[in-house]
Design goal:
The protein has 120 residues and is mainly alpha-helical. It has a domain of 71 residues. 75% of the residues lie in helices and 0% in strands. It has 5 helices and no strands. Helix 3 packs antiparallel against helix 4, helix 3 packs across helix 5 and helix 4 packs across helix 5. The protein starts with a helix and ends in an 8-residue tail after the last helix.
Length: 120
């Protein structure tokens, strides 16, 4: 037992040095994962327009999924989620807003029960 403790104590500095050396070789986190862009200032009307645009496309996505997988609701759901994810990324890029901000707009719309018709 004393011999094991002595060996582990002897190699502890070497292990620590190895870990520090490995850590210093890794690129900084900022190089691995860029920070998300800051939110863009949008008026209520702009946020509602984005919501309406998303919902119109979401209806088309739903129809497309149901048509492609009429007898498999699980596959239709998975396909729909995949298309929604792609569309959200596309819409966020088109509007030049962070994806998280688009998600926030959609959440706000749901919580406040926005409608698809303007000025309602």
């Amino acid at each position: 037992m004393k011999r094991t403790a002595l060996l582990s104590t002897a190699f502890a500095p070497l292990a620590l040095t190895s870990l520090l050396l490995l850590a210093s070789c890794a690129p900084p986190r900022s190089e691995i994962e860029p920070p998300p862009p800051p939110p863009v200032e949008l008026s209520l009307e702009e946020r509602q327009r984005i919501f309406r645009e998303y919902m119109q496309e979401d209806g088309k996505i739903t129809q497309q999924a149901e048509k492609k997988f009429p007898n498999s609701p699980i596959e239709a759901f998975e396909f729909k989620e995949e298309l929604r994810t792609e569309y959200k990324a596309s819409l966020a890029a088109q509007e030049r807003i962070p994806r998280t901000q688009l998600e926030d707009i959609l959440t706000q719309a749901k919580q406040e029960k926005w409608t698809l018709t303007p000025d309602s």
